[in-house]
Amino acid sequence: MNKLLRAFFVLLAVSSQANAAPLKLPGHIDATKLLPFSQPNRRHNHSKDLAGLYAVQAFQSNDIKQPYSEFNLLYQNALVGQSELEIITEGITLATGTHSFSSGVKSQPRALDKINRKLAGNSDQITDLARTSIVAKDVPALMNAFELIEQKTQILRIKNRFKTPRASGYRDLNLLVRLPDSQIVAEVQIHLEAFSVIKNGEEHDNYEQIQHIERMQLTENRPLSEIEQASINKLRTESKQMYHTAWDQYLSA
Questions:
Q1: What total of structural domains would you count in the chain?
Q2: Using CA atoms, how far apart are residues 107 and 215, in angstroms rounded to an integer?
Q3: In a shared domain, residues 97 and 181
Q4: Nearest Cα to 130, choosing from 161, 168, 69, 88?
Q5: What angle do CA 233, 239, 240 make, to 5 degrees?
Q6: What are the CA-CA distances from residue 154 to residues 36, 164, 175, 214 (Å)?
Q7: Which residues contact residue 157 at a Cβ distance below 8 angstroms, ignoring those fewer than 6 apart?
Q8: How far apart (Å, rounded) are the C-alpha atoms in residues 67 and 77?
Q9: What span, in angstroms and rounded, lies between the C-alpha atoms of 87 and 239?
């Protein structure tokens, strides 16, 4: 019940006019270290169709960082940020007829592994501790959800994979946002339903088969055999074709 009440109040806030008082930052956050507020797409009134979706511009702020550089402090606040993100997401899904999925905060071992392997030990550069996904049944619902994310958070990065899909053929809007209260940088992915079904179903099975083949090759310290490479190519082609077919559904809608 508490969760529903929180979502209800967030929905009221989402539906209100954007004339709120300036944000008062918590005392332990140094405002001079935060990026200036910038919403690259807000000046555009995007249509709620494919043309509007294609018009969402790729964007990235300079020097995206978390407000904390010490890992334990960052992780504690990421837990708070995850709750804040889920409340915002709940309100958006209620307002737009979409639905959301959250796997919670990235685990500490995985976070530390990423920081040490990919980020040169810089804890303030990890941007996907708090994360959530929104799944829309069609393009208009996806665009509505995107616009509300723009209103409720500070957009730091946009990857428009509907315009420039991944090599696998997968398409989504991949966002980094700064949350208004915790100031945590979080990842938000906005998917279309057909892509989400494939990604979490048949394509995931193909991905696991490819991972199994590649792990065996690494364990045995040898190159891929012709048969293994052919199997990987076949699985990747199947995944790409599934996503292509899914996208055709929206192009012809």
A1: 2
A2: 23
A3: yes
A4: 88
A5: 90
A6: 9, 23, 10, 39
A7: 59, 60, 61, 64, 174, 175, 176
A8: 9
A9: 33
Last residue of a domain, one of 146, 174, 193: 193
H helices of the chain, in order, are 2-15, 50-54, 71-96, 108-118, 139-152, 193-199, 202-219, 226-251
Q: At how many degrees (to 10) do helices 71-96 and 139-152 cross?
A: 130
One domain, residues 206 and 126: no
pTM for this entry: 0.78
Classify residue 39: in a domain, yes or no. Answer: yes
Q: Provide φ and ψ at 113, rounded to 5°.
A: -60, -45
User: Domain for residue 119, yes or no?
Assistant: yes
Task: Read off the pLDDT of residues 3-58 as tens digits, 9 standing for 90 and up.
Answer: 445 545 444 544 443 343 333 344 444 443 344 444 555 545 678 899 999 999 99
Asked whether 99 and 135 are in contact (CB, 8 A), the reply is yes
